[in-house]
Design a protein that fits this description.
The complex is a heterodimer of chains A (573) and B (294). Chain A is an alpha+beta fold. Chain A has 10 helices and 34 strands. Chain B is mainly α and 294 residues long. The chains are: A alpha+beta (573), B mainly alpha (294). Chains A and B meet through α9 and β27 of A and α4, α5, α7, α9 and α14 of B.
């Protein structure tokens, strides 16, 4: 019944948001009564709508329209409690305080479907007040140092000249969560091209993927759109130009709603990074890109590559819980990555601020050159793998001690250092060297002792950070060497730089000493990881990756499932 | 073969006539030194044009090569070092006589300077001394000056040692420290120990510590089959510096202690701990935990 005269009906001014996080808007309880603050236990959420549900090759939140039914599913819902007795002329106002948010949009569901709602000018009619009205909200971005992701909604109603007490609700945007290497893998990636050196690796990878029933996507590295210059070979560093993650909020039946989101590397000049927009962006698959307009002094573009961004798997240490793990990124004050990238990582409420690694001693400067992780049957559920020049040196010395004749055996037999395809000097720089020559090289030994010092320091820092013990750390033996200016890279193939999916790892073929037809380093690595039920596969990648200062992890990538415990909202600091 | 020699000779002579600035300014060498070097290069180039061609066509300066590498920037140090003694005069030609026969980007030039100085330094050939000294005096960056200093240190003659020790109180003290780190003479070690113990700033402490770890490296000494005569002495000085320093300087000293790997590092740390304040004891405990694993 609508009243136009007599005493004014008591207004119903109530918002309903999913404050109890069950994926539904409930007419009673926290969704109605306890939505004015946000905590690990309670508070509504919304998504950065970065996928492309209408497949128009644009991120959905770039426009102010709801792009179909699937896009509507990406809107977090807000409902007003119906006021059936709202008098004619009553008006509802939904105000939005988004702070420094780069973009938050509201939509209203009407008889004709979804339409943009401008809180500064649009209102809710009396008819809509009587029935209750539904809104949808999306963000154009994730939290940053200037916006913690929170918005405040104020719902007020004015009837017969009187504005009733408003209702307030807060909501937070779900962050980008970077996948851990321990998360279940949907798909692995590598860059392909019809160059013999590339094919030597990708053919290996195809075989390994088939043997392990793992889906592999090969990206066309000769796609003109991904090359600055037709005279330049493919950009084979699949790890470096994109990093996979996801974003999600609670969904119905204690599930979740969300999407995969890939982070593109900052430099626009890294053309293969456009694979993220050209080929990955799709319904349920979004893209985010953080880049600064100008770079500070000391910026090194190499640090913007995502071999320099990893996740320490989930851990709890003391009072600190990281149920989705913690981001790990390398830089020092003198050698920095893109500031916008670091800001984005640091502002991540689920996995940030990132754990900083000193990689200043490395020529490429990526954390994946000396650290990685494997699943393990331990209370923590994982082990840390660290490069160990010390162990490599010990192993070579032991080889000679076992039989002095081993000292004259060759490492890297028939291998050469890198030249581009077709170079007339290709193959001129042989890499093979005897064990004795390696051990008798004082400069090589000196820089490896320096490398070990850095690795041991980072190892100690990780132990203090995560509580991990020596028993949960596996040393992976290989030597490094100086590239220039006391900056190092792997001299022996950096086998710690591996691709992990499930209990399978793909490592660089080490080209170690071969005795009775068996590579002793391969045998050592297989045995080293066997206690943790890791299946080791070796891939040939000396020419295309190792000689160009990278290894298997650098040349691959993986799209991983959103974990079942994807409850980022329970992460507290 | 004759035809090939003639062809390469023609190419080499053409390369020699292409205008290019040497990495070191012409006026940086004495006229005598420059003329002597130019004369040696002229004779050598005529005799071995292929060696000059190799240096003139460094693949590490080819964008097809370096943009394909993971670091994505030019580097030629390893490539030049692999050429061995054959490349000495061609490199000195690039450094101080003819320069490089094509225009280079800033990154490429910096990589070439660094690479040439590091590769020349590794050869320890006294013919390089005047050019290296000029490179030290006229370096356009700290990295280049440090590379020149290391090369001079590796030469390790009386003149180089005296020059580096003199520079410890000059305008390029840190580069001098770097150079002394590469000099295997006991006088260099003593100078570094003195520099560390008297250091009043973090940068000097860090530089001296890093340089000392080169002298003390037990792995390097073992690789030479030499008896370890320096690591304990170096470790002792470094641990004392660790106690005195803070922040980035302490971090650098820690790395140096670990990179030295003296067998009695733990004992030295324990001795220092006995008289340290509580904060320093905690830091020493962390260092000890790492050192104990070595």
């Amino acid at each position: 019944m609508v009243h136009d005269s007599g005493p004014a009906p008591t207004p119903v001014v109530k918002l309903v948001v999913d404050a109890d996080r069950n994926g539904d808007l409930d007419d009673t309880g926290p969704d109605v009564d306890q939505h004015n603050d946000w905590s690990a236990q309670r508070g509504a959420m919304f998504l950065a709508n970065l996928d492309d549900d209408d497949s128009d090759h644009h991120v959905d939140c770039e426009d102010d329209a709801v792009n179909g039914a699937d896009d509507a599913e990406d809107l977090a819902r807000i409902r007003t409690v119906a006021w059936p007795t709202a008098p004619n002329g009553a008006v509802g106002h939904l105000a939005l305080d988004a702070g420094m948010a780069p973009g938050v949009r509201l939509f209203k569901l009407g008889v004709d479907g979804w339409a943009g709602f401008n809180p500064a000018s649009d209102t809710v009619s009396a008819e809509e007040l009587r029935a209750g009205v539904e809104f949808g909200v999306e963000s154009t971005d994730f939290p940053s140092s200037t916006w913690n992701g929170q918005i405040a909604l104020t719902w007020s109603v004015t009837a017969q000249g009187v504005t009733a007490d408003a209702d307030h609700a807060v909501m937070r945007v779900a962050p980008w969560v970077m996948s851990s290497s321990l998360d279940h893998t949907q798909q692995i990636f590598a860059v392909d091209a019809s160059y013999p050196t590339v094919l030597a690796f990708t053919n290996n990878l195809v075989r390994i993927a088939e043997d392990t029933h793992q889906e592999l996507l090969l990206i066309d590295g000769l796609n003109r759109a991904y090359r600055e210059d037709v005279n330049r070979g493919p950009d084979v560093w699949a790890q470096d130009f994109m990093e996979f993650g996801w974003t999600a909020i609670p969904g119905p039946n204690s599930g979740r709603r969300g999407m995969f989101v890939v982070l593109r590397t900052p430099p626009a000049t890294r053309l293969i990074g456009d694979f993220t927009y050209n080929e990955f962006l799709a319904p349920g698959k979004g893209v985010v890109w953080k880049r600064s307009a100008t770079q500070p002094r000391g910026h090194d573009q190499s640090l913007d590559s995502f071999g320099n961004l990893e996740v320490i798997p989930p851990y709890t240490h003391g009072d600190t819980r990281w149920p989705l793990g913690r981001l790990m990124h390398g830089y020092t004050p003198a050698r920095v990555s893109d500031p916008k990238l670091r800001d984005f990582l640091d502002a991540n409420p689920a996995q940030g601020p990132f754990f900083r690694v000193d990689e200043s001693w490395l020529h490429v400067g990526h954390v994946d050159e000396f650290l990685s992780f494997i699943p393990a049957a331990t209370p923590r559920g994982w082990k840390l793998l660290v490069a160990s020049p010390r162990l490599a040196r010990q192993n070579l010395m032991a080889l000679v001690a076992r039989d002095p004749a081993n000292g004259e055996r060759l490492m890297f037999r028939n291998m050469h250092w890198f030249y581009p395809e077709g170079s007339p000097m290709a193959g001129e720089r042989p890499a093979q060297r005897t064990v004795n020559a390696i051990l008798a090289d004082p400069d090589l030994m000196r820089v490896n002792q320096v490398a070990q010092a850095h690795i041991d320091t980072t190892r100690q820092q990780l132990m203090e950070e995560t509580g991990i013990t020596d028993a949960e750390i596996i040393e992976i033996p290989f030597l490094l060497w100086e590239i220039e200016n006391n900056l190092l890279a792997a001299y022996m193939p950096g086998t710690v730089n591996l691709l992990l999916y499930g209990n399978d790892v793909v490592m660089a073929r080490p080209h170690g000493v071969v005795i009775d037809g068996v590579d002793v380093i391969e045998t050592d690595l297989i045995e080293r990881l066997r206690p943790d039920n890791i299946n080791v596969h070796f891939a040939e990648q000396w020419d295309v990756l190792h000689a160009a200062e990278g290894e298997v992890h650098c040349g691959t990538n993986a799209l991983r499932d959103i974990p079942t415990n994807a409850r980022w909202w329970e992460v507290t600091r | 073969m004759k035809r090939a020699v003639l062809f390469f000779g023609l190419v080499a002579s053409m390369a020699a006539t292409v205008s290019a600035d040497p990495l070191v300014p012409a006026a940086a060498l004495s006229a005598t030194a420059r003329q002597s070097l130019a004369s040696q290069v002229r004779v050598d180039r005529a005799r071995r044009p292929a060696a000059y061609q190799r240096v003139a066509t460094l693949h590490g300066l080819d964008p097809r090569t370096y943009r394909a590498s993971r670091a994505g920037r030019p580097t030629v140090s390893r490539e030049l070092r692999a050429m061995g003694p054959d490349a000495l005069l061609p490199m000195l030609d690039v450094l101080a006589v003819s320069g490089f026969p094509r225009a280079l980007s800033d990154d490429e030039r910096a990589a070439l300077e660094l690479g040439v100085l590091e590769a020349v330094g590794e050869l320890r050939d006294r013919r390089a001394a005047p050019a290296l000294r000029a490179a030290f005096d006229h370096a356009r960056s700290d990295d280049t000056r440090n590379a020149a200093a290391r090369a001079l240190g590796r030469l390790g003659g009386d003149d180089e040692l005296a020059m580096l020790r003199r520079e410890l109180t000059g305008a390029h003290a840190h580069a001098a420290i770097v150079g002394l780190g590469a000099c295997e003479r006991p006088e260099a070690l003593q100078s570094l120990l003195d520099a560390l113990s008297t250091s009043r700033d973090d940068d000097t402490t860090a530089a001296a510590a890093t340089a000392l770890s080169s002298h003390g490296s037990t792995w390097a000494q073992a690789s030479r089959g030499a008896r370890d005569t320096t690591s304990s002495r170096v470790a002792d000085a470094l641990v004392r510096a660790f106690v005195r320093s803070r922040g980035d300087a302490r971090d650098a000293v820690q790395i140096a202690i670990l990179a030295t790997g003296a067998p009695d590092t733990v004992r030295i740390i324990d001795a220092a701990r006995a008289t340290a304040d509580a904060d320093t004891q905690r830091a020493l405990d962390r260092l000890r935990a790492i050192a104990a694993r070595q």
